[in-house]
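INFO worker-7 received task bundle
INFO bundle size: 2
INFO processing item 0
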Amino acid sequence: MTEGEEPARPRLTVLPPGVIAGFAVVGLVLGWSVRRICDAVGRIPPGISWLQVSMTFFAAAILAMVGRDTWRAVRSRVAPLDFQRAVNRLVLARASALVAALVAGGYAGYAVSWLWNDVDYARALLLKSSVAAVGGLLMLAASLFLQAACRTEGDDSTPGKR
């Protein structure tokens, strides 16, 4: 490095789609196996409340608002987002995407495990877990939007750099 040259900053890239898909598949298998394991050990499968379902939508809304604010701040000429905050938001987006993929996959797997059961309790769990899976997908979309909001024009991987 020559004098006056800025040191290279570590580069954080966006999360690869294969990793997100892998987490979703793990969640799907885990969610599907919950009922099977409960049946095998003689336990009642866990219920799902509407509060749990609503939390997936609430988390998606929070992530979407942070993404919108980040998008505006990164592109602002008046008060641009500093590098460290952009990195923090990118890390939040990456972690949220992984958690959202697990949540969406887990609830979807739990819903699938109740598909061929014709009991009212099973129908209620199928409905709630399906709606929660949609909330998990919205969480995933919002976290991917937040991840994209950390990018600037002309730079595909470093967040908030001007």
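INFO item 0 finished
INFO processing item 1
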Amino acid sequence: MAEIFGDKDRIGQVITNLVQNAIKYSPKSKNIIAGMYLENMYLEKSNVICSIKDFDMGIEEYEQEKIFERFYRAKNDDVFSFTGLDMGLYISSEIAKKHNGKLRVKSKDGEGSVFYFSIPLASSQQNANS
């Protein structure tokens, strides 16, 4: 069993946002894959990783860091038909940072994206504070 310290509502908000984005930005795909796993389980700094994978649009490489900025929207003609404030990934990234974690993306244009949200294990947090 892995244990983390964090605000369950905010962590839930990140997971919900990533799942909603995967559904929203993959209108032609019938599936998304959600998973959780341990990263570096036997090292001093271990993380729980939540990943959400979609199979549709994808994000150009040059935009992958920018999508975590406030109000940024990828320059894809299909994306402009979606409504929203473009704050979800920014807020999710900030929540991850507040939990000493990180929000990352791996994507290929036209092939889909995988978003990774990491949170340090409770034992890693305690080691960092010692």
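INFO item 1 finished
INFO post-check item 1: DSSP finds three helices and four strands in the chain.
INFO post-check item 1: The first helix runs from residue 8 to 24.
INFO worker-7 idle
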